[in-house]
Design goal:
Two copies of one chain form a homodimer. Chain A is α/β, with parallel strands linked by helices and 200 residues long. The first copy, chain A, has eight helices and six strands; from the N terminus they run αααββαβαβαβαβα. In chain A, strand 5, helix 7 and strand 6 form a beta-alpha-beta unit. In chain A, helix 1 crosses helix 2. The longest helix of chain A has 17 residues.
Chain lengths: 200, 200
């Protein structure tokens, strides 16, 4: 219908490179943008540029932030004796949103997935060890995702931390999520909740 | 975690306005763009701008195109006696890709959905009637989507065309999709296929 250098096709192509965006979705988004008011489309384009121009990875904790070191690493209000290790910046974002953590972060940049070729050296583990060797860290919270790859990654880091420092190594609690119903929880969730039961 | 004017949050917000993109997906895409090489992110931003700057709606058939009238409306190689009525430019794209249609198009810009407030006057029906009143149209192919809203839209257009011109009004054939298996087709599909059976 349209030549291959059609702006709609070009945009579809680039959108389909984004994670979770298939060819069909990319085409739908592209045509939607074609019908958007110019002002809105330009705002979107500018927002993308603003991210790529202003967002960088913190050289200390690998968090995506507007400054390097990031606002958390330089904040005088954070507890510098705690490091929460997460797979991705978005996980740190989720923890920040909870408002219940005031320590520092360390973003691994992924999780172990040998089948996809993600080995320990692809994660920022060495950088984490360097931070801990500097001392002053009392607790490392392994906050990888609660699934098999996340658990494997946490175990690998625990092993790597062995003998590096004299700190506590903890993991996030597992159990029934607040606000949910027991009847909808699957067997693994209930089993974890029972295993981790506390005196009430 | 980050102030509200954070470029990542701003981009998330704008992305979440796109159809089918929820808050979570928007955030995931935004952080992905934050980690993309600058060159790739800029290319994406530029592609969005190129679409909004160069793509417009054809004033004749409402197709999204780089020119107005669109390349199909002005092409000397198209059969001007046939108009294929589709809901959306993407549907025209699908038909073009099939390579089996050489007539013109008319994009309705949606489908009837009274519950969502989409009434006949929100579609380019009047514009279609004007095109037909000019004469020379021998066939109008109603190629709305094969579901309830699409069928209602097609019927409404058929009624609107009544008495406007002396042309054939056709619809796309329905049946078992090529390349699929009978056993996976649902009852409605099989029933349509039987109803529309032809001598072999």
């Amino acid at each position: 219908m349209a030549p291959n250098n059609d702006p709609l096709n070009k945009l579809s192509e680039l959108l389909s490179l984004l994670p979770g965006v298939g060819d069909r979705t990319a085409q739908r988004l592209s045509y939607h943008i074609g019908r958007m008011p110019t002002r809105d489309a330009v705002a979107l384009a500018e927002a993308i540029k603003a991210v790529t121009e202003n967002v960088r990875q913190c050289s200390v904790c690998c968090l995506l932030s507007q400054s390097d070191p990031c606002h958390i690493c330089v904040s005088p209000n954070r507890d510098r004796s705690r490091i929460c290790v997460v797979e991705d910046s978005r996980d740190a974002h989720a923890i920040e949103t909870s408002g219940s953590y005031k320590g520092l972060y360390h973003v691994l940049g992924g999780r172990l997935a040998p089948l996809d070729g993600v080995e320990p050296e692809h994660l920022s583990v060495e950088q984490l060890l360097m931070r801990i060797r500097k001392g002053d860290v009392e607790e490392v919270i392994l906050a990888t995702n609660p699934d098999m790859e996340g658990d494997t990654t946490a175990s690998m880091i625990k092993d790597a931390l062995e003998g590096v420092g004299d700190m506590k190594i903890t993991r996030l609690a597992r159990g029934i999520p607040s606000g949910s119903h027991l009847e909808y929880a699957n067997a693994a969730i209930v089993s974890e909740a029972l295993k981790g039961r506390r005196e009430g």
